Amino acid sequence: MNLKLIGSSLIISGTALGAGMLAIPMVLAQFGLLWGTALMLFIFIGTTYAALLLLEASINVGGGLGMNTIARKSLGKGGQLVTNGLLYALLICLLMAYILGAGDLLNKLLRNVGLNLSLVQSQVAFTLVAGVIVASGTAVIDKLNRVLFAVMLLMLLLTLVFLVPGISLDNLTQVSNSSGSELIKTSAIIFTSFGFMVVIPSLVSYNHEATPKQLRNMVIIGSTIPLVCYLVWLYAVVGNLTPEQITHFSNVSELISVFSADHAFINLVLSSFTGLALLTSFLGVAMALFTQNEDMFKQNKVVTYVISFILPLLGAVFAADQFLSVLSYAGIILVFLAVFVPLGMVAKLRQVENQDRSYVAEGGAVMLIFSFIFGTFLLVSQII
């Protein structure tokens, strides 16, 4: 058993498995479990295959490289500039959002133990400590993430123990909205729940001794774990509540409060799950940005640390509203980064006669066409 590969799969899962998981039933319940499950499986297949395309590009240009170098070697300088621009826009804004959320959570926790720090001080403390962990290397992130992820799964299982007995088969078959266009619109939300591709170059470097087949399995396992968690949570919630009840909730807190009325501890468990999910997502995104900056700035740790953590921290403290407005476009940015960029990389590399082909994602030209259609579908879902 290769613990590094298992840990790497959990980093993929932890990056994807964010607090947004709790809101999935509020998005899909109205369309019924059949169509909700079908849409989730379609997006899972599309994102996983796109991730395998990025894995192919990462391995074949010389594993251990960041997105910056992979893009330059496969797409040229123009593609490198576009890829870097999209990647920085996404990762820095995501880190700002995580710093704001984690700072607020840390502030509340410290107040409960008698430490009255300001919100800004809490944000600074979280960023500096988390930054040191990420800068310590992927091995440290791997070991910490294993513990955090195990606790998250335990909390999810505890919640399910209390929810599963209350499942009603009648609720599982109800449909309150049969609009195909409305269902398609939810694709953007589901897609971001599988947004893990940014960590792949870092994990290829971390598992430099692994075979291409092992790396392929790492990606597939890492993306399958969130799928299972999403579906289990969806079925448990829909089984306990009617679609009409679920769609009337304006936020996740209202959903949690309904279950807490019967099982008081669920509020604590799911609130803790939300905090841990935020932390594992932060670690994955921060690792991706740190690796990218190491690649850009030739391993200069000081410059890499400042750009990776101090810049997002300053943005979170002084310009949160302006910078976080970019997050409204995060879904579109992610479509290009997670689908079209890997597709372009592989399409270019497969045309080079003497290019190393240590790993080639299955499916040939048919799956490349599927990936293009998938990306186009996601773009359409965000503008209709």
Number of helices: 18
Number of strands: 0
Assigned CATH architecture: Up-down Bundle
CATH class: Mainly Alpha
Which percent bin holds the helix content?
A: over 70%
Q: What class do helices, strands and sheet pairing give?
A: mainly alpha
Rg, Cα atoms, Å: 21 Å
Give a nutshell description of this structure.
The protein is built from 18 helices and no strands. By secondary structure, the protein is an all-alpha fold.
Can you give keywords for this protein?
single chain; 384 residues; 78% helix; 0% strand
Question: Could you characterize what this model shows?
Answer:
- This protein is mainly alpha-helical.
- It has a single domain (3-383), classed as Up-down Bundle (Amino acid/polyamine transporter I).
- The protein has 18 helices and no strands.
- It has helices at residues 3-16, 24-28, 32-60, 67-112, 119-135, 138-163, 169-172, 180-185, 187-192, 200-206, 212-240, 243-247, 252-262, 265-296, 301-318, 320-324, 330-349, 364-383.
- Helix 5 packs across helix 14 and helix 6 (138-163) runs antiparallel to helix 14 (265-296).
- The longest helix has 46 residues, at 67-112.
- The chain is globular and about 60 Å long.
- The mean pLDDT is 90.
- Its main location: membrane.
- It is a multi-pass membrane protein.
Give the arrangement of secondary structure elements.
Blueprint: H1 3-16, H2 24-28, H3 32-60, H4 67-112, H5 119-135, H6 138-163, H7 169-172, H8 180-185, H9 187-192, H10 200-206, H11 212-240, H12 243-247, H13 252-262, H14 265-296, H15 301-318, H16 320-324, H17 330-349, H18 364-383
GO molecular function, one term: aromatic amino acid transmembrane transporter activity
Protein name: Tyrosine transporter
Keywords: Amino-acid transport, Cell inner membrane, Cell membrane, Membrane, Transmembrane, Transmembrane helix, Transport
